[in-house]
Write a structure and sequence with these properties.
The chain is mainly alpha-helical. It has helices at about 1-20, 30-35, 35-75, 80-105, 110-135, 160-165, and strands at about 20-25, 140-145. Keywords: Coiled coil, Signal.
Length: about 170
């Protein structure tokens, strides 16, 4: 009973504790898109991705050619020769799938490289967000770009994205 009373008292006083707190939000996607380093990173990732996609397409075309050659020579091959060629094709398909997973999979090289390139920029942005929050006395700052925030309405008065851009020295560059 005593615990319930304490909990009820705490819940009643909680709104009063928040009354003096400033709350705001930033849009990190907007900030990233305004940053010139992000455009460079996007370009680098696009060219790297294109290169890896070409390799994957090359593997796929080699597999297709192997299937076409097998189909063309099928009548001339013994069952054993046919099975050997089919095994080679299946092996090539497994290698192509392994390549795609290694490069574009959940923890693939593409996403690792993207994280590696974005990490310094994200650190710079979050340091700027920290300085803006402290300078403006903000207790809680949401990120409009992150999906689980459940922000269904935002008042532009509380958007501190421009302050963060200013802190990064990007206020009038773009």
């Amino acid at each position: 009973m005593e615990k319930c009373l304490k909990l009820l008292l705490l819940l009643c006083l909680f709104p009063f504790a928040l009354m003096g707190q400033k709350i705001g939000y930033v849009d990190t996607e907007y900030i990233l898109n305004k940053h010139p380093d992000y455009k460079k990173i996007q370009g680098e990732m696009e060219s790297l991705g294109d290169e890896w996609k070409k390799e994957a397409q090359k593997l796929e075309s080699e597999i297709k050619e192997m299937y076409n050659a097998l189909k063309a020579e099928e009548v001339l091959l013994t069952e054993e020769m046919y099975q050997e060629r089919m095994a080679l094709i299946k092996e090539k398909e497994k290698a192509a799938t392994a390549f795609k997973n290694r490069i574009f999979g959940v923890n693939g090289q593409y996403f690792q490289k993207q994280s590696e390139l974005l990490q310094p920029l994200q650190s710079k942005i979050y340091d700027a967000i920290d300085r803006v929050s402290k300078r403006n006395g903000i207790a809680i700052l949401f990120d409009k770009a992150s999906s689980p925030t459940a922000m269904i309405y935002t008042d532009p008065r509380h958007d501190y994205s421009e302050f963060v851009l200013e802190e990064l020295g990007l206020e009038e560059n773009n």
